[in-house]
């Protein structure tokens, strides 16, 4: 901790970044301040919110609720993410940002969006594909740790999604087990874009203090000490490395098993501690892959495209 005290004082405030400019993907999309009672499902079909039947609650959090719903006319099953009218402004701003991102994405490795609507009550909703096994966090809690072959499949799919997003100048900034969705075919899709960012010009326009701090890369806490400008693409790779490590050992790897994390402890561990080492029994290929993700210097981390060629995935 003496080393921590000797370092320069970090700005620990967490300001919210500016929302990205909108580039509509769905037809006749209304401005966010406009109230509408129509969901855009496709260019040829639209349904009213009353045509959706709520079946059960899938989860709560951040001022909203996710439901499993059925389209009464077609019997199609969707997930409906609702941010309620009494949610705080930051949460409502985040769902606007998520809508911006989902309008522009079209990848089998990113959760598919089927439309948006805003009710007169002020509730804002996103209709998304339903992933019936929940998240990787759910699988870890219910089924236990992942084998290396399963992790290779997870990594390959997530990296394909990140490669697509990064090629389109989108940084996710919150990769973690609970934001990686799974269906019964063991397809993994990236979800929850509430703190994501579309880069328009330069990377240094991005504020780094967003997302879940446990999965933040060192340069997100202290960009000046780790290469100057914050590289959000490399930050996504660090988060993926921590995620895969956690799925392998069954606990968050940057702290001792069972330790309850807090912001300051996490910051010290991530910024000033050594990257974690896999336990004995991990293959050399997996060790190399994790090390390529968890380089402290962001410029030394492999990109998503590079990691897709790593021997761990080929094996």
From TrEMBL:
Residues 52-313 form the Protein kinase domain. Keywords: ATP-binding, Kinase, Nucleotide-binding, Phosphoprotein, Serine/threonine-protein kinase, Transferase. ATP binds at residue 81. Gene3D superfamilies: Phosphorylase Kinase, domain 1 (3.30.200.20), Transferase(Phosphotransferase) domain 1 (1.10.510.10). It comes from the Eukaryota. Residues 1-11 have a biased composition (Basic residues). The keyword Electron transport does not apply. GO terms for molecular function: ATP binding; MAP kinase kinase activity; protein serine/threonine kinase activity. It catalyses: L-threonyl-[protein] + ATP = O-phospho-L-threonyl-[protein] + ADP + H(+); L-seryl-[protein] + ATP = O-phospho-L-seryl-[protein] + ADP + H(+); L-tyrosyl-[protein] + ATP = O-phospho-L-tyrosyl-[protein] + ADP + H(+). Its EC number is 2.7.12.2. Residues 1-26 are annotated as: Disordered. GO terms for biological process: pollen-pistil interaction; response to other organism; response to stress. The keyword ATP-binding applies. Belongs to the protein kinase superfamily. STE Ser/Thr protein kinase family. MAP kinase kinase subfamily. This is mitogen-activated protein kinase kinase. It comes from Lupinus angustifolius.
